Every structure is written in C-alpha cells, then in structure tokens.
Amino acid sequence: MAPVVQTINLQKTYMLGKVPVNALRGVNLEVESGDFMAIVGPSGSGKSTLLNLIGALDRPTEGKVIIDGVDVSTLNDDQLAELRRRIGFVFQFFNLIPRLTASENVELPLAIAGINKRQRKEKTVELLKAVGLSERANHNPTELSGGEQQRVAIARALANDPRFLLLDEPTGNIDSKTADMLISLLKKLNEERGVTIIMITHDPNIAKQAKHIVRILDGKIIEETNNMNGGS
After folding, report:
1. Strands 164-168 and 197-201
2. This prediction's pTM
3. Residues in contact with 101: Cβ distance below 8 Å, sequence separation at least 6, in sequence order
4. What is the mean pLDDT of each run of 10 residues along the chain (232 residues)?
C-alpha cells in the first residue's frame, strides 16, 4: 500500500531581501495510513514550512509532495482546492469563527461541501460527542476555554472525513494539564477511529506521545524513530 503522504528530496528556499534562506534542505518522509507522527524541532528548524508543503498550502522549490499517490505539483488550482478539503487542518490559534457556536463551526465545512441539513446535524452531533463537547455545542468560542476551542477545531477538521489531520503546535496556547487531555484525545482518535495524524510541535514531551517521531533541524531530518510507548 502506498503511503498517505510522501515527500521526496523536498527543498524550500525563501529570499530574505537578496539573501536566500534554505528552510528545507532535502526532506524525505513517508506517512503510512493510521500513523500518529510528531515532527519535532526548535523554532526556525523548518517544521512549519514542511507542514505547509504537506498541506498543499505552499509549493516546494525542488522535490515532490505526493498525497495518495498523486504528485501535488501536477494539480491545477481547482484540484488543489479539492485536495485541501481532504486534509484536516488544526492550527495553534484555533481559527474558529467567533459569531458561530461550537456546533455551527463544526457544521460549516459540511455546509460548504453541500451536505444536506439533516446529515450535517447528525455528523456534527457525532463529532462533538467524539471530542467530549456535546454539552458545549451551543456556546460561542468566547465562552469556551482554550482546550475546548482546540477540541472544536479538531471536530471541525474531522468533518469531511479527511485522509489525515495536520496539527500545527496544537498545545501551544493551552496549559500543560489541558495539553495532556488534548493529546489523550488525539491518541484515542488515532487508535479507535484510525485517524492518521501529523503533528508539528517544539515540545519533546508532547512528541513522546506519538507513535512515530521525526526530529528536524536546520531544514533536515536528523532522526526518525518508532516510539514503542506511543499509543500505549
């Protein structure tokens, strides 16, 4: 079976004025279906650049990103938009719409996808239950804690049954106790629902909860390990 995500000699160079900055320098990576991968590294190591490329939010300078066997560079704008709908994005700052309730935030991508109202409501109830927020469905984001907002963001990301979840520093704006609860939720989704997860983090303790740890430094993978304790 082909990997869900594969990167081949992935390189990304930005220009800082007239100075080239090599954000990624030949990254080769494979993510199998059902994996829970943590990509860990300090600020400036290239991990967020890698996440943007995997999520088809940016294009590499050289190399390839292959998702479900398809080279992303061969897709036109409409095909890229369709591809992104099959990826669940969870951002550090939640990116919820303040005037919508938790339920409405989760339902929004289903409405955009043209799902009928009854099915949208059923799916939203199911997802909020899966992240433990059934009783907070009618609350706006301002009435929710940081951890609750992040769980709403995860439910929303799961709405269209994505091939994988991409999480950018999901514990960056919540306290350590809440972070532990959030990671437990991700492990449960991975183990019980088979959700494939790729998580960017700078925190090695958070990374230890994943099945597969990739360490990146100065735009290169310096270590890749299977974590026997991840998922246990």
Report:
1. parallel
2. 0.89
3. 137, 138, 139, 140
4. 90 92 95 95 91 93 94 92 89 87 95 91 94 94 92 92 91 83 90 92 90 95 82 52
Structure-block tokens of residue 207: 């990374």
Rounded Cα gap, residues 216 and 232, in angstroms = 24
Q: Which two tokens stand for residue 199?
A: 């998580």
Q: How many CB atoms lie within 10 A of CB 77?
A: 7
The two tokens of residue 117 are 């109202």
Cβ-based neighbour number of residue 126 at 10 Å: 14
| Helix ranges restricted to H, the chain | 47-54, 77-84, 102-112, 117-130, 146-157, 176-193, 204-207
| CA atoms lying within 13 Å on the CB side of residue 222 | 11
Q: Which tens digit of pLDDT belongs to each residue from 71-111?
A: 999 999 999 988 888 899 998 777 899 999 999 999 999 99
Give me the phi and psi of 70, to 5 degrees please.
-110, 125
**Full strand arrangement of the beta sheet holding 19-31:** 19-31, 5-16, 62-67, 70-71
